[in-house]
Specification:
Number of strands: 0
Shape: elongated
Length: about 190
């Protein structure tokens, strides 16, 4: 397909999709770098192997997976011109996303309660990585929540229809990426000792 062909709107839509994918690729590289550093650091003598992640991290994992499903249902509702259903699923996705962030911070509280610190004399390099990786992911989820809020706002204004829902597609793609990324990260931190 020649990217220079098509109407101005088609070209504009393609450019938006490409920008999103470039952004996702840069995030993949960043998290690949941190997880690679985690693996390299695991050979250090002061690496602690028997640390368990907070149980709330696993509960929040379930929530972010469910939130991807509700976003899919919201998009399907728009494609079928079922605005009320889409609104319900978008709002549910937003609540699940906010709850995910809340549980992540509660997970940090669990780690602190178990005596693990990000820095200082009671910290370990492994826990510093866990705090860093989880916190940077939370920052991106907050960006996803902002994107989701914009999608919900535009949806309520009637911007999307069964013929035009690119903004929702872009927001959903980013949200699904964040969910997949977290599932990878939680599995990585669970099984890479």
């Amino acid at each position: 397909m020649d990217l220079t062909q098509g109407s101005e709107k088609e070209k504009y839509d393609r450019s938006k999709k490409m920008m999103l994918w470039f952004g996702i690729a840069s995030l993949v590289m960043g998290f690949a770098g941190w997880t690679s550093a985690y693996i390299v650091s695991s050979s250090r003598k002061d690496w602690i192997q028997d640390i368990e992640l907070p149980s709330l991290f696993y509960i929040s994992t379930g929530l972010i997976i469910v939130s991807s499903l509700t976003y899919i249902l919201a998009k399907r509702g728009v494609q079928q011109n079922k605005k009320q259903l889409s609104t319900l699923f978008l709002a549910t996705t937003l609540v699940l996303g906010i709850t995910f962030v809340y549980l992540q911070f509660q997970g940090f509280e669990q780690m602190l309660g178990n005596g693990y610190r990000f820095t200082g004399p009671t910290s370990s390099i492994k826990m510093s990585y866990v705090f860093l990786i989880a916190f940077v992911h939370i920052l991106h989820v907050v960006a996803g929540l902002i994107s989701l809020s914009v999608v919900l706002f535009n949806h309520l204004k009637g911007k999307y229809s069964s013929e035009e829902y690119l903004g929702m597609t872009l927001g959903a793609t980013f949200w699904h990426f964040l969910g997949i990324l977290w599932v990878y990260l939680i599995l990585f931190m669970t099984f890479v000792k």
